[in-house]
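Practice problem 4.
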């Protein structure tokens, strides 16, 4: 394998994306997203030549990418660094309380602990008291699973989805602890009533402090086996269209379908290869 300098640079951007998604490995989907995010890439030019939208393909590829994501019908939303900490802390709160599943109250308490100082002050001045939250619910052994959200109960999972919607509506690239706290209030009316603050009020209070700019910690990511095999199969000085060609060689796979559904086909690639080049 001897990829072009452009593909090497894009691979670094893909690794940055994987870190922002809290992924453990670097995948073909991460690389596809990085290429589709660069409007000067040959892949983007080819997609537009097919009268397709690179942003739509990006969203579809992102939904397939490894990482911590909420995948909805209209958008895919990632978690900020502090939101991931809160999501993990909610599991530990449920375990410590002897609950059989994570509840909205667990999500709220964990999210509150990850808010900025300014956000905490705003809530406190509005009468919000996290000490008033009772971690009630069915007792039992917390269910274990390979995914972070496996122990979450239905209401807590709906809170995650609600937090995603709040972040997308606000134009944030990732949902934050503020989104989690507000969405938890929206899913548990008794919780909101006991605290004297509802979802809408929380959204308004926290809006100036809702973004979480915390950068992910640097980590070395291992390539997924499929990405390693693909990169090893590329010709000398390979570019983005060579990467796409390898993806399309497996038409049954979901990543290939992202392109094929938009009429980005092997035939189109072959006809247009000489017309589009990477920077």
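Answer key:
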């Amino acid at each position: 394998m001897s990829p072009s300098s452009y593909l090497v640079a894009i691979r670094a951007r893909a690794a940055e994306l994987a870190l922002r998604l809290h992924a453990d490995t670097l995948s073909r989907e991460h690389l596809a997203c990085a290429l589709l995010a660069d409007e000067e890439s040959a892949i983007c030019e080819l997609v537009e030549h097919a009268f397709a939208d690179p942003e739509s393909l990006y969203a579809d590829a992102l939904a397939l990418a490894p990482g911590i994501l909420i995948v909805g019908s209209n958008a895919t939303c990632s978690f900020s660094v502090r939101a991931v900490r809160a999501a993990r802390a909610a599991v530990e709160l449920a375990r410590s309380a002897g609950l059989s599943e994570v509840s909205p109250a667990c999500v709220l308490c964990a999210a509150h602990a990850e808010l900025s100082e300014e956000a905490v002050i705003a809530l406190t001045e509005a009468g919000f008291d996290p000490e008033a939250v009772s971690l009630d619910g069915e007792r039992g052994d917390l269910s274990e699973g390979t995914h972070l959200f496996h122990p979450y109960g239905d209401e807590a999972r709906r809170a995650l989805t609600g937090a995603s919607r709040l972040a997308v509506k606000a134009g944030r690239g990732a949902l934050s602890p503020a989104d989690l706290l507000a969405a938890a209030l929206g899913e548990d009316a008794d919780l909101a009533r006991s605290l004297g603050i509802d979802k809408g009020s929380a959204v308004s209070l926290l809006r100036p402090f809702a973004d979480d700019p915390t950068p992910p910690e640097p980590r070395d990511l291992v390539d997924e086996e499929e990405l390693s095999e693909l990169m090893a199969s590329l010709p000398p000085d390979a570019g983005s269209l060579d990467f796409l060609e390898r993806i399309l060689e497996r038409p049954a796979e979901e990543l290939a379908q992202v392109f094929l559904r938009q009429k980005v086909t092997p035939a189109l690639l072959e006809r247009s290869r000489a017309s589009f080049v990477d920077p």
